[in-house]
Amino acid sequence: MENGLIVSKIRNGTVIDHIPAGRALAVLKVLGIRGSEGIRVALVMNVESKKMGRKDIVKIENREIQEKEAELITLIAPNASINIIKEYEVVGKRKLGVPEKVSGLLKCPNPSCVTNNDVEATSTFITVRKSPITLRCAYCETEIGEEEVLRQILS
Ligand code: CTP
Ligand code: ZN
Fold this sequence. Notes:
Layout: E1 13-20, H1 24-30, E2 41-49, E3 53-61, H2 67-76, E4 81-86, E5 89-95, E6 101-103, E7 124-129, E8 134-137, E9 143-145, H3 146-154
Antiparallel strand pairs: 1-3, 1-4, 2-3, 4-5, 6-7, 7-8, 8-9
Bound molecules: cytidine-5'-triphosphate and zinc ion (ZN).
């Protein structure tokens, strides 16, 4: 249900729904979509939602979301759902699962952490809380929360 269809339905592709209001751009960033690829994308931001007050929606034509990408989306949108669309019908709907660990995406804020000093060490965070997200560096145990995750993804 979508307030008078602010954006039309798509024929084939993926709809990421129930994104916290204002975070659609961060979701695109996580997916590596910058616009220059030429993929047709629709963003719906800050629209009314029965369940969450306000929400964002991202619609991507002719593109599937890989499991790894879906996991990363949970870092900023833990309750998002991914809808697979085929010939205008929702043929699949899944809730996302927060990953047990996140490697390579985020930087440890501790300047003396080995991941900031040894080019061979890949940053790795273990999930200690899912919503809102809390991650702990696997090397130095520094914890980062949702705010820091968002800041890094959007920077
Ligand atoms: N959607 C779309 N194009 C389609 C079909 C659906 O863009 N051809 C969008 C809808 O606008 C909605 C999302 O995909 O944002 C999920 O569709 P649907 O399952 O029909 O909506 P709801 O029942 O409201 O979903 P939920 O129960 O997950 O809230
Ligand atoms: Zn660290």
